[in-house]
Amino acid sequence: MTEEYQKRINAVFEFIDTNLDNELSLEIVAQIACYSPFHFHRIFKMITNETLNQYIIRKKIEKAASLLLHKKELTITSIVHQLGFTSNAVFTRTFKNYYHQSPSNFKKTHLHKFSKISQIDSKNSQQMESYETYICNLMNLKNFTTMHAKIEIKELATQPYAYVTHIGVEGLEKAFQKIIQWCTPKQILENNRSKIIRVFHDSFKITNPDKVRMSIGVTLTETIAVNGDINIGHLQKGKYIVGRYELLIEDLEKAWTGLFIWMNENGYKKADYNPFEVYHNDFNKHPEKKAILDLYIPVEYYFN
C-alpha cells in the first residue's frame, strides 16, 4: 500500500462520514479519490478489507445504532428516511444482520447500558448481565471516575492537527511512533502547546474493534505542509466534557465508560462529532507506566 493510496482513501473516509445521508455510489466516491471506479474499488478493499458497499452499509447501520442510543427523541422511521433505506423492513433486516435484534428492541435494551454492544456471530447468543451484576459494575465505574478523574466542561475552538489513519486495535503503537517520528525533526512538540492525540471516528461500543477507525495525530499551532500519508484534520469547535486522568493504559476503557456515565447522569447529551484523547506525557517514561491524558466527549446541550 503506497502513501498516496492512503492519502486519497483518507479523503474518502471523511467524505463518507459527512455524507451518509446522501447518495454514495461507487462513481461518486471514486471521483473523490481521483481514481476510476474499477481502480478505486480494488484499492479501497485492499485498505479496508471491505468493499465500498459493505463499508457504507456498515457505517449507516452503526450511525443508526448511535442515533438510537443518543437521540431517543428520533423515531425509527425518521432514521430510516435520514439514512436513505428504502423501507423500514429493509432497514430492520439489515440492522438485525449486525446486532441480531430489531432496532426497537436494541433501543430498549441498550439505551441506559454502558457496556460494549457486540456485533456477534449468528451462531452465538448474547448473554445479558444480571441486574445485580450490572448495578455492581455501574457503581465500580462511578467510583473509578470519582477517584481518578478531574472533570470540567470546556468550550473548544477549531483546532488543526496532523495525523495518520489507523484501523483496528492491532499495531496502534506503530501509528503513534510514526506521527512522533514525523513531528520530531520539525520540533512541533517542543512548544508545549502541541500534543499527541487520538481521535475516534467510530465507537468501540457499536463497531467491532478490528474496524474502528482512528486518527493518531499531533495538534498544530501554525499552518504546516504535510506529505505522504500525513494528513490535516480539525477538531470540531464546540462544548466538551473533559476528564483529566493519570492511569495505566489498560484502564482506558474503564475511564471512557465512566466518563460517559458521568455525561448521562449529569444531563448532557453527546454531540454528533468525534471524541478524542490528548496525551500529556510518554507513559513509558512514567515511573509507574501511567499515562497523563484528557478524554474529550463532545456534548450538544444541557437539559434539566
UniProtKB/TrEMBL annotation:
GO terms for molecular function: DNA-binding transcription factor activity; sequence-specific DNA binding. Residues 10-109 form the HTH araC/xylS-type domain. SMART domains: AraC_E_bind, HTH_ARAC. Keywords: Transcription, Transcription regulation. It holds the Pfam family GyrI-like. The keyword Transcription applies. InterPro entries: AraC_E-bd (IPR010499), GyrI-like (IPR029442), Homeodomain-like_sf (IPR009057), HTH_AraC (IPR018060), Reg_factor_effector_dom_sf (IPR011256), SmbC-like (IPR050908). PANTHER family: TRANSCRIPTIONAL REGULATOR YGIV-RELATED (PTHR40055:SF1). This is Helix-turn-helix domain-containing protein.
